[in-house]
Amino acid sequence: MNVMLWMPGTCRGCAEARTAAIGHDLLSRRRPMSLLFRILLQFSGLLAMVCFFIPASRAAEQAVTAGLVPSAGYVRQRIEDSASVLDLRKAERLALEQNLDLQAEVFTSQAAEALVRKGYGIYDPNLEIFLAEGERRDLSNFQFFVGPTGLDTRDFNLSLTRVFSPGTEVSLFYNNRRQNLFTEPKPAINPEYDTELGFSLTQPLLKNFGRTVTEQTILYAIKDREVSIEELRRVALDLLMEVRSTYFNVLRARDDLAYRTTSVKLARTILEENRARVAAGVLPPVEVLEAEVGVQSRERDRLDAERAYHDVLDQLALLLNRPTIPRVAEDRLGQPEVETDEARAFRTALKKRPELQALLRQSEKLEIERDINHNQTLPALDLQASYSHKGVGQNYNESVDFMPRSDLRNWQIGLNFSYPLGNRAAREELNRTRLKLKSQHAAIGQLQARLRNEIRQAIRLLDVSRAKIAAATTERRLAEEKLRILVGRKNVGLGTTRDLLEGEEDLARARTDQIAALADYNIALSGYYRATGELLEKEGIRLQRSEGGLTDQPFTMD
């Protein structure tokens, strides 16, 4: 059995030469290669060659295909249906499509758009129809006449009223009345049909004048919709950040579980080897006890790693709103480089962070409210005008025909002025709005300072993560070299089981630390783009709106 020791960063020829030298040294002693030595040597080469998340060389790929990597059951199972494999891009897409928190925010934004459409209802003409029929009876008591009096009436009125943007209210009306008088002597026309066609106009000149006051409900709804859109972007941004962090933690936990499983298998192999040697009288019985403790300790660590892996898988399934645990692709954690510039990142955050944009939209809404409240402090001065033409007849057709030929015209024009003395309600409402606007400006300034602080923290975390990766890589190489030496010492009888188990544990811990450092770096990189507000853009995610507003799936991916 040929096992080649290979470490990332060394050429394949050097690795082959090193392996050949070790083999020649062992053969020169003319000692048969024991089962324990073969297992330990295989494991040391395995930890160096198998890099699930660091780009591997062709030799490492050959080692994987040769079966040197344990499958670890469900962790490394072969997935025949590639469409069911969940990679990072698919996880992001599923989260944007199926996450319930995001869907709830989409419906909230759609409700805000409905309020905008509702606001334009102020320009809808109002049609009013009035139908009534009645009778009135009384008793007349005059000096020369005592008797019953009364009349019956029948009314049909039609009016159409509409508001225009300057605040103008125009009403067209068409009134009809039939009146039958019971009193003696009866009038010449009885029953009498009265018809009236006309219009009325009311135009505010000071208070309530202007498009802003007229459309205040529309303007408020538009700003609320913009705030809702920014809140939707914030929820999507936080969701994407959480999905990416959870996905990287899944890769970290899966790798840790795989190495813990392999460590348990190695410890059991060492236990079996020690039992055989103790039975042969080569080793003292304490070596078996140490091997048993090593198996139990590593089994405990494996159970903890398995629990952590399933916990983070459940968390990912919850974010994707999936009833089953997703099968995660065999992705490798890389170290993408990014140039950080605090000044540029802060300028970008001022434009793209949804929290800040939401506060700015709320500030704009308060400015509109301030202007409207200032208008309400003015006195009410309304121009009022009306004109109508009437017709009278013994029946309906006669009264209608009489209208254009008669001089029964009615008109009126005038001004209506009103002003509450003191006007404290309007003045204090304006003062309240101004104070709220100052409070909003202070909140915006505080948020801007917090954004700058978040960017600085994200940059520092990236720098620290880079340093951790470098340190963990060096530590792993040292642990690999130490384990190789311990394997040789154990094979020639100079090392103990405890030393070998400790060396194997050091290598597993170093490898886990390296994967953890890579995961932390990728999470920190996502956090940096989250701090600048660019995470959606970097992932090719856009918020699309149609003419009818937001759809149920407003986010698209490139």
From TrEMBL:
A GO molecular-function descriptor: porin activity
Bilayer-spanning residue ranges: 35-56
Superkingdom, taxonomy of origin: Bacteria
Protein location: Cell outer membrane
Family matches, as InterPro entries: OMP_efflux (IPR003423), TolC-like (IPR051906)
PANTHER family according to UniProt: OUTER MEMBRANE PROTEIN TOLC (PTHR30026), TO APRF-PUTATIVE OUTER MEMBRANE EFFLUX PROTEIN OR SECRETED ALKALINE PHOSPHATASE-RELATED (PTHR30026:SF23)
Protein name, entry field: Outer membrane protein TolC
